[in-house]
Amino acid sequence: MAREVSEICMDSVLAEMVASYCNRFYANKPDLAARRIEAIGYQVGHQLSERYTMERPRFSDHLEAIKFICKDFWSEIFKKQIDNLKTNHRGTFVLQDNKFRWLARMSVDPSADNGSNEDSSATVAESKAAQAMSMHLYFPCGIIRGALSNLGIPCAVSADMSNLPACSFVVRIKA
């Protein structure tokens, strides 16, 4: 029987990890908190990739490995495939999830940060809310980077959440 983790448990672990690194361990160092969260995701992705490719032959090229991430790997983690894959055929891939599960359940109330109704304070509150939400994307970026690293593909991964709950992950293969 396959070992699985309840989705709500994973949501809670991710939320607590981000809160701990951002508010306790590295409260005044958001860049360091982001690097630590991404490093944890890297380890998780590396180990999951090892588990999910144990019975498979090695991938012959980058595109084949990226397709594995979009279909099989993503399905194992999120119970659905990536919705869209784009590439420039020069080492950059964009993986789009139109309803990224870890963002779809999040809600941010910008008015909670500040009782004022002024436009400038609302903009600042929205910016802080977006920054807090973006911290949750370092973990899946790390998962993708760790999985691809395990497949022999060094890369950098970033995320774009400009159209919530959709999320795009940009994978840049290192030469």
Global morphology: globular
Radius of gyration: 17 Å
Q: How is the largest sheet built, in terms of strand order? A: 1-2-4-3
The oligomerization state is single chain
Taken as a percent bin, the fraction of beta residues is 5-15%
| Total helical elements | 6
Protein name: Trafficking protein particle complex subunit 6B
Family: Belongs to the TRAPP small subunits family. BET3 subfamily.
Pfam family, one: TRAPP
InterPro entries: NO_sig/Golgi_transp_ligand-bd, TRAPP_component, TRAPPC6/Trs33
Notes on the protein architecture:
Helix 1 runs antiparallel to helix 2. The protein is an alpha+beta fold and 175 residues long. It has six helices and four strands, in the order αααββαααββ. The protein has a single domain (7-173), classed as Muramoyl-pentapeptide Carboxypeptidase, domain 2 (2-Layer Sandwich). Residues 110-116 have low confidence and may be disordered. Strands 1-2-4-3 form a four-stranded antiparallel beta sheet, with helices on one face. The longest helix has 23 residues, at 30-52. It has helices at 7-25, 30-52, 62-78, 101-104, 119-135, 138-150; strands at 84-87, 92-97, 155-160, 167-173. Helix content is 53%, strand content 13%.
In short:
It comes from Senna tora. The chain is an alpha+beta fold.
Descriptive key words:
175 residues, alpha+beta, Muramoyl-pentapeptide Carboxypeptidase, domain 2
